[in-house]
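Quick start: what a row looks like.
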Amino acid sequence: MLNSIKERLSDMNCSVLDISGEYPKEATIAISFLSPDDRQAKRKIEKIETMLESRFPELQTELDYESI
């Protein structure tokens, strides 16, 4: 399932890094992307959230964001 999520995010021009810990049933991924401004970054984040909710409804997701 993690590979499927990575593929979908890659299709959205996002870089994905698996930073999971020791628990095999809990995955943690870091997602990065470039955006010209905050408004478009927020749109991209909403798109990612929508994709995760619609394509993987059985997963519990927690998303944290950082803009640099």
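That is the whole record. The chain has one domain: 2-55. The radius of gyration is 12 Å.
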